[in-house]
Write a structure and sequence with these properties.
Structural class: alpha/beta
Number of helices: 14
Radius of gyration: 22 Å
CATH architecture of the largest domain: 2-Layer Sandwich
Helix content: 25-40%
CATH class of the largest domain: Alpha Beta
Strand content: 15-25%
Distance between the termini: 38 Å
Largest sheet: 9 strands, mixed
Number of strands: 14
Number of domains: 2
CATH superfamily of the largest domain: ATPase, nucleotide binding domain
Strand order of the largest sheet: 1-6-5-4-3-2-7-9-8
């Protein structure tokens, strides 16, 4: 059921806004990229090919809470925009975003919209133009990921309703791992469940899809043909093993909740623990889901904060914070060993986390340069020592750029083609 724009969202002007001169740059066609999380929307506006220059980027956070926030940055240094936002769901947040874009860069300049969709398997393994049939199929997949897919579908419907004439392209976070070896995708449970789509899928694929050509460009394409471990370390965290440019394995499985401990997610746990909690605490499915996805991980161990920056600051005086940091670094290190490959993309902003993960991995040829790892900003591009046989790189991921390229390369999207 559609709702009028007037009763869906209201914005309060903040202290800063993008400069008015930006309005003069609206003639060129643009592509809007939307990346929805469980309580957030990242967005970016790209000029159409061949440049694919990012002209505006931002995010809406804490959707559904009492204090949602809308922030954006323009192409020039100092071009910032901030507003308080009344958005009770992703649909109302989308309406507010489109209203703002229409004022700054009229929607008439849009040529296409790209949407990040967390799960496409088993139906979709490459970017495709959205249709009513596809949205219904995504609804069928919603029970597999109730934290993300319903919000993404709501966002897609709101934007399609506002811009029905545009091509809308879905880019799937599970697509990168679609070609994993079968042995890596099988779940060791009763075989009959495979027919229902229960298998290891892997996520964060858009991030890995961005990192691969970056590694190839930075290392003369040799690394992209060799053995690489890519680490996506943020609120969500995972590792992916890649050989000859193809995915071999990944730490995430059937849902985005497994593998490494994350900000609020447990990662892998003994399945017997779930039976124990169900029996002794009388937990049902919803309570278990809440515990493992919202109350565990970096938040669960200290029970104070899910933010690695807070934990690093407190670890000297708070033993529980120190244990949370140690557990995270240990689990990442423990997983790198079996992948036994070169290392790339570790902990962009946390030099101590990078150091503790790589410590003791000399057996794999990994030797960090402490000065490079720390540096003036802690963000050197290469942080391995000259003597290291494995190169360790820090690469800022950009899922939105990956989506923009995919939209422009989608055969069903009538835009000039861009190089992948």
């Amino acid at each position: 059921m559609s709702r009028s724009r007037s009763d869906m969202a209201t914005l309060t002007q903040g202290p800063q806004a993008l400069s008015d001169t930006d309005a003069a740059a609206t003639a060129a066609p643009t592509t809007l990229v939307l990346n929805a999380g469980s309580s957030s929307i990242k967005f970016a506006l790209f000029e159409s090919p061949p440049s694919l220059h990012k002209v505006v980027a931002g995010h809406i956070e804490r959707i559904g809470s009492s204090v949602p926030a809308f922030k954006a940055t323009g192409p020039a240094p100092g071009d910032t925009f901030s507003r308080a936002l009344d958005a009770r769901d992703h649909q109302s947040a989308a309406v507010a975003l489109l209203d703002w874009l229409d004022q700054r860069r009229p929607l008439a300049t849009l040529a296409a919209v790209g949407h990040r969709v967390v799960r496409g398997a088993p139906f979709y393994s490459s970017p495709e133009r959205l249709s009513d049939e596809m949205i219904e199929r995504l609804r069928q997949l919603s029970p597999f990921d109730t934290a993300h897919l319903p919000h993404e579908i709501g966002l897609i419907e709101a934007v399609r309703e506002r811009c029905p004439q545009l091509p809308h392209v879905a880019c799937f976070d599970t697509a990168f791992q679609h070609e994993m070896p079968r042995v890596a995708s099988l779940l060791p449970i009763a075989r009959r469940y495979e027919a229902q789509g229960l298998r290891r899928l892997g996520f964060h694929g858009l991030s890995y899809q961005f990192l691969m050509p970056e590694v190839a460009q930075l290392d003369d394409r040799y690394a992209a043909r060799g053995r690489i471990v890519l680490a996506h370390l943020g609120n969500g965290a995972s590792l992916a093993a890649v050989r000859d440019g193809m995915p071999v394995d990944t730490s995430l499985g059937f849902t985005p909740s497994g593998g490494l401990p994350m900000s609020t997610r447990s990662g892998d746990v003994d399945p017997g623990l779930l039976y124990y909690l169900a029996r002794t605490e009388k937990f049902g499915a919803e309570q278990l889901n809440e515990l493992l996805n919202s109350q565990s991980g970096l938040l669960g161990v200290p029970e104070t904060s899910a933010d690695m920056r807070d934990l690093l600051e407190r670890q000297a005086s708070d033993v529980r914070a120190a244990e949370a940091v140690a557990l995270f670094c240990y689990q990442v290190k423990k997983l790198i060993g079996p992948y036994a490959a070169a290392l790339g993309g570790i902990g962009e902003h946390a030099y101590e986390v990078r150091s503790r993960i790589c410590e003791g991995l000399g057996i794999l040829g990994i030797d960090l340069d402490a000065d490079l790892n720390l540096g003036e900003s802690g963000n050197a591009a290469v942080i391995s020592a000259a003597s290291s046989t494995v190169r360790v790189r820090v690469i800022r991921t950009d899922e939105e750029s990956t989506i923009a390229r995919s939209v422009c390369n989608c055969s069903a999207c009538p835009l000039p083609r861009n190089q992948p």
